[in-house]
Specification:
Length: 877
């Protein structure tokens, strides 16, 4: 209750106003004028508009946000003369009513005049904001994702491909209204040529199912790509690039994509090959970024316990990803008739990644300090096959039957040679597979214009077998570790959706069954083979309810979840077998106030109660590499998390100003904590449950403003996070730790009406870890990227890029400078273009980055792609 009162007093000032003005607008015959503009100015000697609103059907009301000494109220309407009214020294307590009578403009016969008006950069109609791409794109932009990053109010994560609008992740990116890509929409944004695009539409209250439009809760957002007129039948582009690196090795980056569009058919396909670190797919095998789809399917999939060597992103992947990647993909929607459609998606990846990584760690534990190092030389060969099918059949005008299924097979082979502490040598071979099958059937029946019923059944199966072999060259002993997770997931749910007097509701009930088995064997000690064979069951029956009350500008959404949960662990040892049942109640309350069409403020409080992930169900040690072993103390306890957040959003397209501010706080009651046993040769990690609290506070700011007098856009993104957590290190007592992180990024982009323009991005990251036992360990990182863009002529452009990195500002001598260039020849009204690209001209061979924890500071050093020169030819079909 205390937190609700705090939120109320925070919101109260935002709802106050300085003055209320209302009135009527009629013509000389006494008829109401259907539409007029109400403009507020501070005096009659200025053309500057400080506030405005619209009058509809002859009526208007405006609540002014500020106090003014003088208020000039001007009314304008097409075909009528403007009228003004001045209020001198207005009384704040008084509500002013003004009645206007507008006179018709006199009609003067003119000779024929052709007026060519410039197309607006954006338009707003109901729930859709439409961006005119020609007003935002840069001559150097090639793909859709390049221009999306420039659109105000839209945020693009270049690592994962995730797109956000109004601070919310988009559900999908449709192509002329068709959901061709699903959650893997980065396929389209990363690969569709920008020249094919006319508009980008940002859509509120998105619903993929047309039967639910106006019934389903309006919290979803999406983007729609509208193609240029005439881009029908078949179109696409071919990129062919060749170059050489510093060692005179041949480099290649070639791809072709084709887009087919007709009345009943839509398709997009791509085939690509490159060895310069480019990833055209939505899946990342080089670093640890998970795709949007992988994040969405975490409940249906299981875990990989033994990880491959991954690159930690402190620099762009295309500088460090020494790859040899072939990727192909084909997506299509075929509308057999007005009632039946088929969608298929096919994927294939074959890559060969080489990575040299030196990890040097300074450990500070109690009064002891020691250094460990691991020098990895790794070859990683992933293969991935996948096929999706989606069938939609309208069984009647008001009912829809959908069936979705996907099958994927992944095979990754990793070969590593490791030198530990500059003495011990190891050979490591890891083979990982993943077989994933997922299917869902969904039936929707629109009962009437305000109600709909849905029945859904989902099933998923995931099997991840792994085999690790480590050969110690010193004692010639070979350690073998097997690990295999298998998970079966089944869920059935019935959902009732409704809309009553613009208040939307949703009630559902369902049941879930999960069974996860784990098998592992380790032969490190020939006299005592270590194995795990736990069998984990999770069964639940649940009910969910949510109502969205809309009261003028207010939206109030209370919701709840009530669940009966039963968990069992069978370890084939009666002493360790466990069973536990819980009744879990999860309430949530959110409130949103729409300040105007451009801005809102929202707040949410929730309590979630969830069982822990199945990755903790095994007890005996698992070897993950030459140094690390993992054990767990399994539990069936529940993680209780309280989450509170407050957000403000404003996207004023007219003033070219955007700002988003958010604060969130999460407190976990009961969690898995880590017990580390660390020495020079190995690290043993035991995850165990304690009924202790940890919490996390996050603040974020993102703001962007175009200053017309300077012809420059300024964008600031800032994040502050503070965490409190606990652990045990080398038989210590339970340690209280704090982690503080600050990230500030400032981007400045010019739009001068000259041949030269600039784009500069500066990023400062500060991390601090503090433990009551070992003191403080911190690190500061600074990066700066400068682009100089020069327009030689209407068809020739060049870009020079300088990227500067300081991994540790306390040691500024250890810095890195990268220089790149590109020259673009793009003749107007032609289908082709040429690029000449130079990358890493100073030929940096390694890059270092710093990572800190409460007891260590690690320096990770990676090899880089050497200097190369590249020529690329693009032809648009």
């Amino acid at each position: 209750m205390k937190k609700i009162l705090i939120y109320f007093f925070i919101l109260l000032p935002l709802l106050s106003f300085a003055q209320t003005i209302k009135g009527s607008i009629k013509d000389s015959n006494g008829n109401s004028i259907p539409y007029a503009n109400i403009l507020i100015k501070e005096n009659e000697n200025t053309s500057s508009i400080v506030e405005f609103t619209y009058a509809r059907n002859g009526k208007f009301t405006i609540n002014l946000k500020k106090k003014y000494q003088t208020i000039l109220v001007e009314v304008t309407s097409q075909e009528y003369n403007n009228e003004t009214f001045i209020i001198q020294k207005p009384d704040v307590k008084e509500i002013y009513e003004i009645d206007y009578v507008l006179q018709k403009q006199k009609v003067t016969e003119l000779k024929e005049v052709v007026v060519v008006s410039e197309k607006k950069s954006y338009t707003i109609k109901e729930d859709t904001l439409t961006y005119n791409i020609e007003k935002y794109k840069d001559p150097t932009d090639k793909k859709v994702q390049d221009v999306l990053k420039r659109l105000p109010g839209i945020e693009v994560n270049e690592k994962s491909g995730e797109i956000k609008y109004k601070g919310k992740s988009v559900e999908t990116v449709t192509l002329d209204g068709d959901n061709l890509f699903g959650y893997n929409y980065s396929l389209g944004t990363k690969n569709i040529n920008i020249d094919m695009l006319e508009q980008v539409q940002a859509i509120d209250n998105y619903s993929e199912n047309p039967l639910l439009k106006g019934i389903e809760g309006g919290e979803k957002v999406s983007l729609n790509l509208k193609l240029k007129k005439g881009k029908t039948d078949y179109s696409g582009n071919i990129d062919f690039g060749l170059g050489i690196n510093n060692d005179l090795n041949l480099l290649n980056n070639s791809n072709a994509n084709i887009l087919g569009i007709s009345k009943n058919y839509k398709s997009f396909g791509i085939i690509s090959y490159n060895n310069i670190g480019v990833n055209h797919s939505p899946f990342d095998y080089f670093s640890s970024n998970k795709s949007i789809e992988q994040q969405k399917e975490k409940d249906a999939s299981t875990h990989k316990i033994i990880p491959e060597v991954l690159f930690n992103n402190g620099i762009d992947d295309d500088r460090a990803n020494i790859n040899n990647m072939f990727f192909s993909n084909y997506n299509n929607i075929f509308k057999v008739n007005n009632r039946f459609s088929v969608k298929t998606n096919l994927y294939y990846i074959n890559d060969n990644i080489k990575l040299n990584q030196l990890n040097t760690t300074e450990n500070k534990i109690e009064n002891q300090t020691f250094i460990t190092s691991d020098d990895f030389n790794t070859k990683k060969k992933p293969q991935f096959y996948r096929g999706d099918i989606e069938l939609k059949y309208n069984t009647s005008k008001n009912s829809l039957l959908e069936y979705k299924t996907k099958f994927s097979y992944e095979n990754i082979k990793s070969y590593s040679s490791v030198t530990a502490n500059e003495i011990n040598s190891f050979k490591s071979n890891l083979k990982s597979e993943s077989i994933f099958f997922n299917q869902k059937i969904l039936y929707t029946n629109k009962l009437n214009d305000s109600k709909a019923l849905q029945i859904q059944v989902s099933h998923a199966y995931n099997n991840i077998p792994q085999y690790l072999q480590i050969n110690n060259k010193i004692n010639s002993f070979t350690e073998e570790q097997t690990s295999s997770f298998k998970k079966n997931f089944l869920d059935a749910i019935v959902i009732l959706l409704g809309n009553k007097s613009k208040n939307k509701y949703s009630f559902s009930t369902g049941a879930t069954y999960e069974n996860t088995t784990y098998n592992s064997i380790n032969n490190l000690n020939p006299t005592e083979i270590k194995f795990n064979v736990p069998n984990y069951f999770k069964k639940s029956i649940y009910a969910f309810g949510s109502t969205n009350y809309n009261l003028k500008n207010w939206s109030i959404i209370p919701s709840f979840s009530l669940k009966y949960l039963n968990q069992e662990i069978d370890e084939n040892q009666s002493l360790n077998n466990k069973s536990k049942s819980d009744v879990l109640f999860e309430p949530s309350f959110s409130i949103r106030y729409k300040i105007n069409n451009k801005s809102f403020i929202s707040s949410k409080a929730s309590l979630t109660q969830t069982p822990f992930s199945e990755e903790y169900i095994f007890r005996n040690p698992i070897t993950t590499n030459n140094r690390i072993k993992i054990t767990n103390t399994p539990t069936l306890e529940i993680l209780k998390a309280e989450v509170y957040n407050l957000n403000y959003y404003n996207n004023n397209m007219f003033k070219q100003f955007f700002i988003s501010i958010g604060i969130s706080y999460q407190k976990n009651n009961g969690n898995y904590f880590s017990n580390f046993i660390i020495n020079e040769n190995e690290t043993i990690l035991n995850n165990f449950y304690l009924d202790e609290k940890n919490d996390n506070l996050n603040l974020n700011l993102s703001t962007e403003k175009f200053i017309s007098k300077l012809s420059t856009t300024f964008k600031l993104t800032s994040t502050v996070s503070k965490s409190n957590y606990k652990n045990i290190v080398n038989t210590s007592e339970l340690r209280n730790n704090r982690s503080n992180n600050i990230s500030n990024e400032l981007t400045i982009k010019t739009a001068f009406n000259t041949k030269i323009n600039f784009e500069n991005q500066s990023n400062y990251i500060y991390s601090q870890n503090n433990s009551e036992k070992t003191g403080t360990i911190n690190n500061m990182t600074f990066t700066n990227s400068l682009k100089i863009k020069y327009k030689h002529s209407s068809s020739v452009f060049s870009v020079i890029t300088g990227d500067y990195y300081i991994p540790n500002t306390e040691n500024s001598n250890n810095d890195y400078l990268f220089l790149d260039f590109s020259v673009i020849y793009k003749p107007k009204d032609k289908k082709y273009e040429f690029n000449i690209i130079g990358k890493n001209l100073l030929n940096n061979s390694i890059f270092s980055q710093i990572q800190t924890s409460d007891f260590s500071k690690s320096t990770l050093q990676n090899n880089l792609i050497s200097r190369y020169i590249f020529v690329n030819f693009t032809y648009n079909l």
